[in-house]
Write the structure tokens for this entry.
Amino acid sequence: MSLDATWVVDWMRESARVLAENRAELGALDREIGDGDHGENMDRGFAAVLAGLETISADASPGGVLQKVAMTLISTIGGAAGPLYGTGLLKASDAAGTETQLDGASIVALLRAVRDGIVLRGKAEVGEKTMVDAWTPAVDAASAAESAGESPGGILRAAAEAASAGAEATEPLIARKGRASYLGERAIGHRDPGAQSTALLLQAAADAARNA
Amino acid sequence: MSLDATWVVDWMRESARVLAENRAELGALDREIGDGDHGENMDRGFAAVLAGLETISADASPGGVLQKVAMTLISTIGGAAGPLYGTGLLKASDAAGTETQLDGASIVALLRAVRDGIVLRGKAEVGEKTMVDAWTPAVDAASAAESAGESPGGILRAAAEAASAGAEATEPLIARKGRASYLGERAIGHRDPGAQSTALLLQAAADAARNA
Amino acid sequence: MKKLINDARAVVDETLGGLAAAHSDILSVSFEPRYVARRGAPIAGKVALVSGGGSGHEPLHVGFVGRGMLDAAVPGAIFASPTPDLVFAATRAVDGGAGVLYLVKNYTGDVLNFETAADFAAGAGIRVESVLINDDVAVEDSSFTAGRRGIAGAVLVEKIAGAAAERGDDLDSVAAIARRVNASMRSMGVGLRAGVVPYSGEPSFTLDDEHIEFGIGIHGEPGRAVIPLEPADAIVDRLVTAITGDLPFVAGDRVLLLVNGLGGTPLSELYIVFRRAAQSLVERGLAVTRSLVGSFATSLEMQGVSITLLRLDDELLELWDAPVHTAALRWGC
Amino acid sequence: MKKLINDARAVVDETLGGLAAAHSDILSVSFEPRYVARRGAPIAGKVALVSGGGSGHEPLHVGFVGRGMLDAAVPGAIFASPTPDLVFAATRAVDGGAGVLYLVKNYTGDVLNFETAADFAAGAGIRVESVLINDDVAVEDSSFTAGRRGIAGAVLVEKIAGAAAERGDDLDSVAAIARRVNASMRSMGVGLRAGVVPYSGEPSFTLDDEHIEFGIGIHGEPGRAVIPLEPADAIVDRLVTAITGDLPFVAGDRVLLLVNGLGGTPLSELYIVFRRAAQSLVERGLAVTRSLVGSFATSLEMQGVSITLLRLDDELLELWDAPVHTAALRWGC
Ligand SMILES: Nc1ncnc2c1ncn2[C@@H]1O[C@H](COP(=O)(O)OP(=O)(O)O)[C@@H](O)[C@H]1O
Ligand SMILES: Nc1ncnc2c1ncn2[C@@H]1O[C@H](COP(=O)(O)OP(=O)(O)O)[C@@H](O)[C@H]1O
Ligand SMILES: [Mg+2]
Ligand SMILES: [Mg+2]
Ligand SMILES: [Mg+2]
Ligand SMILES: [Mg+2]
């Protein structure tokens, strides 16, 4: 079984939907330990992505769609999340190359490329209370699921679950990167907004692969 | 029976006390239909008067004391009330002249001079919701009491009662002078702060003549 | 009450202390008697401009002392007109022999106190002229009120009359220019949330979250009505309609547009207001020839804005553009 | 939420619309792509200065575009760094062939977005240098944080580097001056009440009536601690101690003292703060050689203040005094 460009398009549509739905919640998380704009930033970026999907050509590859999405995010999100998600998806686009069908191993490579792109730009390590704390367990879980012979859908569901757990696990942490790092101990008890948006994005990826 | 400079001094001391006590209340009245500073202005002015009384010479006449008080008020109250009360008391000082003892007729003349001084400066007529609405009935009541043969103390008590009623009677009025005039109908239901401070001042005058 | 102050009664003196420390090149502060004078005053042969009024409206008037504007400002207690002895002291300090012009916002207290000061000055042989500033169209100018209030338009009168004095006009001429500016301008404001008077700790008025005071005064005095909060453009249109209809301003007029914050309004909102005001004036055929945006005549930390429109002619324009160097307004030098 | 706005999402564009209408002599606004450029840019042979960052801090940076300061400012959404394509568009619009200097406040978002823009510019053959501004001593500069934040000191860097570019310094020299200013200055602020972010309608933090945030950031980010509200002088002393101890500033230093309002603080309070800050610097033997008081780097209508201290040398002083003509800062012309 494999996923094609339609999955990427569905993933982005679903992402736009859930980010709009969770705009206020992400904003509230960011207000607690940041500057309150994360929900607005993500919603603005994915609304632009959604608009851009209208004009995607029918024969676009998964990598082609991802590149367009990445460029849109870079030029619409702003803040820290824009370059981070943008670079991540750009790297994912590179990883997907010109393939038209993504098998399990390609899916894992794609997720790993996102994570590595984010780390490349943001230099955050695991445990520093950023979106990396959702991406890294997600990549690990995806890799394990693939090794265990799961389908692409199963791999994405494993990634989504791990990202969600990873986001939750940022709550007791002290932040070392981003705006929340200024809080010291006062960050404890609050979930990282970027880790939470990552969990939403990966849940959207799994939901878009519902039947795969 | 008559009143001397000691009465004027006691009147001013008592005024300083009750104005300090009613600072917040006068401020609240002025906040409703003015700019909220009347309590502060009166308290500042009479605190300065109180300090000035320390250095009054033992042989000062009532008119002399009133002149010093008037000058102090003019140079410390500011706002509308400063020149109005100041001019009023300056005229009262003129009315008292060099007399050392004020009989009933002199007391009435003194009160009338205050009222006339205020009207001269402020041009307010009765019914325009200003301190004139307390002074005018006070002067009329004092005059009537004097005609009826009342003592100076009795005259001042009559004036105080009428001023108090006059202040209360400003509540249903629309203002035509001062800051409250901008309110139109919205001034209805609020007591004029200057009329209220006049009522306090005349009550202080009566209290200072408690035994006369 | 949350304020960066020490003692409610020391607010005015300590503000002046900071002003003196920050702007010693422009002005000096006398604390006893209390007034602010232009550095170098008196200037022999120059008409001296003196203004003042209650404090709490900073930078008005103290921030407008300096070259090309005021020779002295006399700040009273918060919202209370200064007393005549202080105005007189300032008058004596800055009179350069060519007479003194009082610029007085039309409030009973200011009028009476400056009147008395003018009497003192006359007694001391100083020639004084007074010009009343009453630009606020919120208030009906009728025998049923104390007359129109003076609000942010004071800044324009001070700037332009100051320039006239600086170029050497005599007292009558400077007074005539000041009266011309006053007669050629109209203002009106709205209040969203009151400032808190330091000595009472209470807001000067209260409004719920859905209402604004249309026609607010700079002491928090009420205006025409409490109306529902609307989008900025709708509010601006109401203000512009009231202002332009009053003079009236007509198509072809060149105007100066001042959008003035009342103390607690962020600059971004002032520009949003300016944007619509300028649009709406252009729609009416007026030419917005000069602009000023900022918080110049405030009411403590009140949230709100006022709009002032001045009809310009060549002379007023030239005087407006003339160099000015004060704490709050500076150009050309 | 009570604001003079029309649509929460239109706040930035409409603010710029007002800015363009009010200051067409100084600047022009491009809406699509969105940036503000100095009128007359590009200026051939002059190093161009570009800054930017999230909106909501007005007049920073858009109010500092003009002669002797920025060639372009790129405002992002409220509190969100602008995207690289916009910074790149502004870069292309103002590059006069002598290279472009990016002045970037140290926030992860700004750093990353300007970094990408610099890559784009390199690709287009435009030489770009970047200088990070990180004056806020509230935040520890350690490997455990994203590093010190850039706050009101940005105004000083923009003014002084702008003057260096104006006198014809080359890119490396202007960058060196900007770095010198940044290295010679320290800032810190306190917040009393948060601004309300238009799109959420929520205050960016909440504090009860008895507490303040000591070391507040200009996005309402927390600082060192929530402490009880104290008299202004005590708060100022805390800030001055933190700031002077950090560089450190020592007796004999000539300094520029900037007291910056955070948006909703009345000018009178800024002067009260200035008064004590100047006193306390003098007590430490410092010479307050230049002063600036006003709301320059704000956080919507936040109530609070920041203090910035810059150690001056003859060259910085000369560049500070050089003519500047922008919407929010003007002298010498
Ligand atoms: N250096 C970094 N590496 C990885 N993620 C980061 C880094 N800095 C910030 N982030 C992520 O970005 C999120 C904030 O994004 P957003 O609110 O949109 O931007 P900003 O902080 O500029 O307002 C944080 O919650 C965190 O997950
Ligand atoms: N023209 C006037 N004639 C008589 N009294 C007046 C006049 N104008 C105002 N007042 C009185 O002054 C009072 C207000 O005084 P105050 O608050 O101290 O001054 P301000 O109005 O300048 O703030 C009013 O309540 C009113 O009684
Ligand atoms: Mg954020
Ligand atoms: Mg009053
Ligand atoms: Mg008053
Ligand atoms: Mg942000």
Chain D has a mean pLDDT of 96. Helices of chain D lie at 11-22, 84-94, 108-123, 153-166, 171-183, 232-246, 267-283, 314-321. The first helix of chain D runs from residue 11 to 22. Residues B 30, 34-35, 37-38, 79 surround magnesium ion (ligand 4) (CB under 6 Å).
